[in-house]
Sequence to fold (658 residues):
Amino acid sequence: MDRKEKRALELGEILTSIQDDLDKVKDNLTSLTRVDFDWLSEQLGYVVKSDGKGIRPALTLLAGKFYRYNLGYMLAMATAVELMHTATLVHDDAIDKSNVRRGKATIYKIWGGETAILLGDYLFAKAGEAVSDTQSPRVIKLFSQTLATISSGEINQLLGAFKTDQTREDYFQRISGKTASLFSLSTESGAILSEAPETSVNLLKEYGFNLGIAFQVVDDILDFVSTEQTLGKPVGSDLAQGTLTLPAMLLVEHYPQDNPIKKVFQNIDREKNIARAIDMVRNSSITDECYKIASGYCHKARQTLSQLPENSSRPVMEALADFIITRAK
Amino acid sequence: MDRKEKRALELGEILTSIQDDLDKVKDNLTSLTRVDFDWLSEQLGYVVKSDGKGIRPALTLLAGKFYRYNLGYMLAMATAVELMHTATLVHDDAIDKSNVRRGKATIYKIWGGETAILLGDYLFAKAGEAVSDTQSPRVIKLFSQTLATISSGEINQLLGAFKTDQTREDYFQRISGKTASLFSLSTESGAILSEAPETSVNLLKEYGFNLGIAFQVVDDILDFVSTEQTLGKPVGSDLAQGTLTLPAMLLVEHYPQDNPIKKVFQNIDREKNIARAIDMVRNSSITDECYKIASGYCHKARQTLSQLPENSSRPVMEALADFIITRAK
Fold:
């Protein structure tokens, strides 16, 4: 089936069954902005209202429904993963000096890099507070380990920036760290907190991991094929920051001579070569090749689900695996 | 007694009774550097070997000795507070664009601000892992709350930078957040983890808090009266960064007209006016006034101790309160 035909359901429709609890997570996030300091309240309101997709908290809630769904623990954990995600974005924008995200000026742009560092730290702290409300040292440890994985993955990305001699293994290791680890934390923690047996914990962790890899591959495709309006940030941002994503890697492989990616990374006619790279990716088989790889991971994710008990979450998580591929932003 | 006569004991001598356990904390920190990635190992080795005073982990161990001293929990917690402290320093240096700390080039200087942000995040994560080993959700929550307090305190400092119209209340609120909160976490967590009764938890928390305030006031004095060699960073750094510390505040109060601090903050003849401010603080009663205030907090800390059971920690913690005032760096 063509991926465009498949785009039947929007994320909101897919998540209908957990919408009430997702709204409670949103309430938790909003209540964070009620602090004594006006300036902090303003900054927090700004990031919290940035309207992320909420896939990660949704994954926690969904994974928690296979066994004993403890609402209090689930909301705490879902809030924690969303806060950790938000904190990493605030820091990423400071690192990449990004001016726009989700169609809005970034914290970095408005308040500067210094405030972005500290506000990110504050959000990590609030994430830590939320996760401590799960009362589970195992989940808290997992949460911290994930942050260690994400940040070392990001340092790795920095060190690899502007280098074209990277292998696919490097790429998948990198996105495992920076993206899939948080997806798998989201599902694994939901499973642990619902007292799932270890085999189910592992299956749900694996589902999240594969979904996360697919999500990042699609993100990397969209950076080439989408529009600035849809993305909420300029197309080709990854290239501009020297990040060699899968489509860029394939472009280097397919056209080793006279390659625009190499030129961008060597800072030769940057703008022109970014535009040329985008054009070449769009008008080649590369997009399809990348989607095929992403679909492979979504397929793995779906297979994992089939080994779990049937419940209300399973069809939602299957639909999510489809959504990840067909999403436009 | 004059504070110089009092400088009888060095920190190492004061802490002799807990040195074995402090060494184990150091081993924990060193073991962090054994990671798969060479680059990360190098960066971690660099920060971990930066040879901090280790006052915070010492406070945790000392506070843990009044009731049931559980070595495993104590080492985990002491490691966590030192890691949190290190992480905040790495971020602070990126924020302040500081090139030198403790006589060594900073992570910011060597690897850049981007790496400093991520390495700081990694250290927070490792601190989170360590604190999760205490198995105490209460302590874990306290730990996260402290990080929230520190980072919002630091944002507050940023927003107040280069402003001379600050009150003493502003100053004490700021240093409570950025310094005393971590000192009080160190002692309070040691108390909680040793199953101290709540009154003792509060007394030990209060001791840590007052000690932390005194520590920061002395830090702020030393920034004026010490030497670059002793401090391991340039004298007058606070002024250069626009931070109005207590001595600077008193200088503004005492000499409202033609004041060098105001000129530094207005960026008028910066270097000359920093030198002039240092000179004026050194050759006035300001240093003594500030030391008197710091001593007041140390006195409060000592008084708190007198309400706790007598044990091996009490004399050490009394000596620490003296050391805080008499220390040269």
Q: What stands out?
A: The longest strand of chain B covers residues 100-101. The mean pLDDT of chain B is 93. Chain B touches chain A through 47 residues (CB under 8 Å).
